[in-house]
Amino acid sequence: MLVKRLILAVISVAFGVIVTTGITLLIGTTPAEYGFLYFTFTSLALAFALGIWLDKFMGTELLPK
Is the pLDDT of residue 53 over 90? Predict the structure, then answer.
């Protein structure tokens, strides 16, 4: 179960960082110009959103039923 949860966390954080980087490049700026705090919080929000879905489909039971 711990391995599944670690995989979920790694996938979620990687997804958040990659998508946030893509968004910043699409709007014509760099992650540095976007701002460290904005980049961090945007990445975390996307990671949590994907993590909720992955929790359901991977069966890690991080969230209560």
Answer: yes
